[in-house]
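Why do we care about 3D structure at all? Because function follows from shape, and shape follows, mostly, from sequence. That is the central idea of this module. The next example makes it concrete: a single protein chain, its amino acid sequence, and then its structure expressed as tokens.
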Amino acid sequence: MADTKAFDSAVEILSEDIRAVLKNIPDSKKNTVQEIRIRTNKPLALSDGASTVFTDDKGKIMYTMNDRNFIVSQRSIYDTFRRLCDYSVYSRQDEIKNGFITVKGGHRVGLCGTAVLTDGKISALNDISSMNVRIARQIFGVSEEIINHLYPFDSGILIAGMPSSGKTTLLRDLARSLSMGIGCHIMRTAVIDERGELSGTYSGSACNDMGLSDVLNGYPKGEGIIHAVRAMSPQIIICDELGTYEDCQLVAQGFNAGATVIASIHAGSYQELLRRKQAVELLKTGAFGHIVVLSSSNSPCRIAEFIKVGE
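And the structure:
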């Protein structure tokens, strides 16, 4: 029987009419959907990473756009947005201006609308016109191959993959396994969860199983790494989505403190990684001795290759 808990959890944040449609789609489809795309006056769209499908107003899956598709109204967008913000838009403004909101369960909702600029920087987002719900899933055991191949760790691990390739899911399971001693000795593990996606923390409680990890929820990566090193003496520091020059300096701090850093970065291949200046700077820190390249989004969390840096 398909496990639809992640999908059902994500659907709960949507407007009543969209929920009614999505609750009726087949369980087999619920188990594979990675993203729910909601656009004003456009068909509701579901993506599994490889293909996009639509539905009618009864939840029947449709493989083409046609006049029987369920169309998302502006009212549905408005109602969903208010639900995302727990009916307090002001309290979520810091997230909104960055273009996404993380909700209970670790689901991340990307937002598009009209930017409000203050001194040349985005200070708010008005007239929301589309949303992308990225469904956070726990898949236990996907970190086993990395632990079997690289443990005991002699250096940090950089996990490279395209969007929807399973980077966050893999990091989540690594945190659980390493902190619990699954396939290894128990290791003091600190998770810097800047956007709340890894732990799915809601009202102070992690909705996802992070084992015995110390979760620094909502911390910017820099402050989180510094705090973890000073207060928690971690052996492992896990964080998601590196990619700026500032990240290079932050990772070096954790590495110089004696912690093994495990992080992810957007890149579809080793060759693409080396074409990104920020990635090259990350490797120059010496924090990463191994690169794990994931396959395409068609097969989330599947490892394409292990690469030892410098060989």
